[in-house]
Structures are given as C-alpha cells and as structure tokens.
Amino acid sequence: MKFTAAPIRSRRKLADLDMVPMINVVFLLLIFFLTSATLRPSAPVDLRLPVSEMADPLSVQAEQVIYISRDEEWAFGNLRGKAAVLRGIEAAQTIGLETVSLAVDAQYPAEKLARALSDLGGLGIAEVDLMTTIGGARE
C-alpha cells in the first residue's frame, strides 16, 4: 500500500501575504469616520452647569436644548432671548416637541428657574430634563 504525503505548504506563499493594503483600508475608514462625525456643539451662551453626584447620561439632540445663562440669556437653536425662545418652543409644538433639555447655569436663581419651568409647562412641554455635570460633593 502506498501512501502519499500531505502537500507541504510553501513558505513562499505565506510570505507573499501582504497586509499593507488592509492597513491602508483601515486607516482610510478611520479617517473617514473621524472627519464625518458630528461633535456636540458648545453652548451658545456662557454657562457652568450644576454638579450632581449621580447623573444618567442623556441622549441629547442639539435642537432640543434650551440654554439659560446666569445673566438670563436664553438660547434655543438659532433663537436668542427669552421671548424668541418661547415663541420657538411654541412653534416646535406643531411638529410634536414634548420633551426638552434645559441647560441652566449653576448660579441661576431658583425662583427664576421655577418661573421658566412654569412657562415651558404652559406651552405644553410634557417633560424637561435638567442637564448637570457629573462630579462629587460641592466645595
């Protein structure tokens, strides 16, 4: 009985496997995703968010954030000023806006915040998420 030996793999074929094209493709994909990604824009008004010990990460869209600075500068999208923002929120109600995120400066007075929340509730906003930063106890 005659047995045939298994074919021996050539070292030359293994050496011919070139990884450079694959590395090029990976780098091109990396560059593409880095350049096409949208980063969250900075706040249109100067504010410092309050610190909370616990915070749940929110999926916030830039279009639905109302910014209020300590000097009572309001911003919502391209709108500036409290009256313009409230009119913009009222107009956004027609397309089904029910939830907004509120980014308020840590030094903003509580009574003015309560009034702002009341104004938003009067416009039909069902839910308001207050934005905070994650941190320990205040100093």
Set down the secondary structure blueprint.
Blueprint: H1 11-15, H2 20-36, E1 51-52, E2 65-68, E3 74-76, E4 79-80, H3 82-92, E5 99-104, H4 110-122, E6 127-130, E7 133-134
Parallel strand pairs: 1-7, 2-5, 5-6
Antiparallel strand pairs: 2-3, 3-4
Summarize the structure in short:
By secondary structure, this protein is α/β, with parallel strands linked by helices. Helices cover 33% and strands 17% of the residues.
The largest sheet, given as strand count, sense and whether it forms a barrel, is:
5 strands, mixed
> Unreliable segments (pLDDT under 50, ≥5 consecutive)?
none
> For the terminal residues, how far apart are their CA atoms?
88 Å
Helix content: 25-40%
Quick one: how many beta strands? Answer: 7
CATH class of the domain at 51-134: Alpha Beta
**Envelope shape:** elongated
Topology-level CATH name of the domain at 51-134: Nucleotidyltransferase, domain 5
Count of DSSP H/I helices: 4
Query: Overall pLDDT, averaged?
Result: 80
Architecture of the domain at 51-134 in CATH? 2-Layer Sandwich
Beta-strand portion reads 15-25%
User: Structural class per helix/strand content?
Assistant: alpha/beta
Strand order of the largest sheet: 4-3-2-5-6
Q: Please state the CA-atom Rg, rounded to the nearest Å.
A: 28 Å
- N-to-C series of helices and strands: HHEEEEHEHEE
